[in-house]
């Protein structure tokens, strides 16, 4: 009974930690969402001319500390978006979209976070294989004050989609498979399958990428332990085989020396300590004195 209660407590604790991690990541992504949107929109309004050409894509200049990001903006008529949609960069907006609130014209800001993708966005147990791409639409609305003067306000627009989604086509990636990760502007995060190769269907504005699942850290640790164990066993077996080979060669060499010695003259042997050594007890040729003369 006690063992079961401990197991239940551990399961609840792990579930709570995972939930906290997801909520913290979700909150951080939402915070990045708003800060990036405001930042890009501010620089886009500074980069676009006062009288922009309709349908022309303008590059947005960013400070040098954001090298690697790409931002552009296009000015469109709302009636054109309704009739023809919009197809710019990596995004294709279908026709029959009426931006809300109603405006005469709108500006769509496109962004490519490049090597900053993982810094601003992350998803637990997933890694990005494409840069994070984003788009947001803005429109200027005018309100008449009590003094009769009009004041302009720039608002983020909504794209109500009823039949067809917005298509996001990603640049080439190094993995053929992956999941569409969607960070919508309303704070919703979704993971779905790709509709086509390198293509995701989205139902709103925000930031999007393709990611692949990675094993959790404890699984990686297990793989490291198994790899080290297998490597150690392999190293031991290689050492054992090498040791046996050296012993075998030494034994063959000794046998060869013994066969060679057997073919030569046989000498007597004696023990010196614990070693058996050849020994000659006599002199084969006795010395002969050539003369008996001694001085």
Automatic annotation (TrEMBL):
Pfam families per UniProt: DUF1191 (PF06697)
Coiled-coil segments: none
Annotated signal peptide: 1-27
Keywords, alphabetical: Membrane, Signal, Transmembrane, Transmembrane helix
Keyword Membrane belongs to the record: yes
Transmembrane regions listed in the UniProt entry: 223-246
GO cellular component: membrane
Protein name per its UniProtKB record: Uncharacterized protein
């Amino acid at each position: 009974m006690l063992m079961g209660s401990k197991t239940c407590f551990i399961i609840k604790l792990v579930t709570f930690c995972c939930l906290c991690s997801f909520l913290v990541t979700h909150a951080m992504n939402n915070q990045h969402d708003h800060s990036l949107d405001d930042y890009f929109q501010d620089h886009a309004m500074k980069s676009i001319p006062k009288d922009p050409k309709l349908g022309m894509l303008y590059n947005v200049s960013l400070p040098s500390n954001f090298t690697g990001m790409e931002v552009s903006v296009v000015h469109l008529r709302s009636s054109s978006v309704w009739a023809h949609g919009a197809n710019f960069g990596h995004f294709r907006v279908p026709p029959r979209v009426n931006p809300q609130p109603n405006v005469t014209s709108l500006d769509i800001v496109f962004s490519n976070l490049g090597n900053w993708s993982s810094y601003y966005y992350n998803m637990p147990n997933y890694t990005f294989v494409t840069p994070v791409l984003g788009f947001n639409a803005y429109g200027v609305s005018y309100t008449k004050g009590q003094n009769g003067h009009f004041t302009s306000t720039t608002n983020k627009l909504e794209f109500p989609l009823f039949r067809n989604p917005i298509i996001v086509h990603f640049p080439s990636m190094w993995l053929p498979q992956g999941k569409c990760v969607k960070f919508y502007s309303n704070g919703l995060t979704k993971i779905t399958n790709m509709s086509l190769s390198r293509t995701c269907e989205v139902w709103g504005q925000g930031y999007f990428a393709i990611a692949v699942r990675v094993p959790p850290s404890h699984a990686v640790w297990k793989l490291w332990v198994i790899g080290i164990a297998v490597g150690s066993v392999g190293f031991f077996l290689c050492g054992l085989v090498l040791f046996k080979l050296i012993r075998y060669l030494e034994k063959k060499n000794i046998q060869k020396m013994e066969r060679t010695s057997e073919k030569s003259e046989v000498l007597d042997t004696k023990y010196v300590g614990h070693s058996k050594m050849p020994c000659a007890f006599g002199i084969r040729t006795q010395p002969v004195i050539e003369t008996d003369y001694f001085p």
